[in-house]
Design goal:
- Strands 3-2-1-13-6 form a 5-stranded mixed beta sheet, with helices on one face. A 4-stranded mixed beta sheet has the order 7-10-11-12, covered by helices on one side. A two-stranded antiparallel ribbon has the order 4-5.
- A hairpin with a 2-residue loop joins strand 10 and strand 11.
- The chain has about 240 residues and is an alpha+beta fold.
- It is elongated, with a radius of gyration of 46 Å.
- It contains 3 helices and 13 strands, in the order H-E-E-E-E-E-E-E-E-H-E-E-E-E-H-E.
- The chain has 2 domains: about 90 residues; about 140 residues, L,D-transpeptidase catalytic domain-like (Beta Barrel), CATH 2.40.440.10.
């Protein structure tokens, strides 16, 4: 009777062993998974903190660099502005933009007037004796070397060639023509003038033979502001 009981107990133990093994294995597996998850989360947290720290430092370095660059640019602008101010004439001066046919008038280093004008047309004219003229306004730095009120125009040879007329002698009275240059004329040399015009509708266009044409009001302001030796910048 006792032998049968022992055998039954052994049988029961043998039946329970697979179940115990299953639970032990499951426990080990879950523990391993938990450890792996904890490790991954810890590692990711460290990587994140490291990344954020690097970004924070990088942003701070970039901001510091930008501030230094801005400071350098500010200093450069100030230096160049001072150089420009020192190079700007203290006397009145005149600027002509031949591309857009506009002018600016300055006094005491401040702009006091601007507006439209007309400059050279760049037209090529040829005469029967093989002479030719290109009607362009000269560019560069010039000075006022003459001032005249109620100027009278002395017509050059090209004026007659342009109209298909015979060229008169140098002293022929037909060369002199009044009322076409306006009330004032300022000379910058080589026959080039700043003067008025009877063709005001063309102001702002490149239509002249090289001179600078202006309307009456602007011309008067230029004449009264500029003096002998005043600089004229043409570009």
């Amino acid at each position: 009777m006792e032998q049968v009981t022992d055998n039954n107990a052994k049988v029961e133990v043998e039946k329970k062993r697979p179940v115990l093994r299953f639970f032990i294995g499951l426990s080990i597996t879950l523990t391993s998974i938990l450890l792996i998850v904890v490790f991954v989360l810890y590692a990711l947290s460290g990587i994140k903190e490291s990344y954020l720290g690097m970004n924070k430092n990088s942003a701070a370095d970039t901001a510091s660099l930008n501030q230094k660059q801005i400071a350098k640019l500010d200093n450069l602008i100030k230096k160049n502005s001072q150089k420009f101010y020192n190079l700007t004439p203290s006397q009145p001066y005149f600027i002509v933009n031949t591309t857009y046919n506009r002018f600016k008038l300055y006094k005491n280093k401040k702009q006091i007037r601007e507006g439209f004008c007309s400059t050279g047309s760049y037209t090529l004219l040829k005469s029967h004796d093989k002479r030719q003229w290109i009607f362009k306004t000269p560019k560069g730095l010039y000075k006022i070397i003459g001032k005249v009120t109620n100027p009278v125009w002395r017509r050059p040879d090209w004026s007659f060639v342009e109209e298909g007329l015979p060229i008169p002698s140098q002293n022929d009275p037909i060369r002199w023509e009044a009322g076409v240059l306006g009330d004032y004329a300022l000379s910058i040399g080589d026959g080039y003038l700043i003067h008025g015009t009877i063709y005001k509708r063309f102001l702002g266009m490149p239509v002249t033979h090289g001179c600078i044409r202006m309307n009456d009001e602007d011309l008067e302001a230029v004449y009264k502001t500029l003096d002998f030796g005043s600089k004229v910048y043409i570009f």
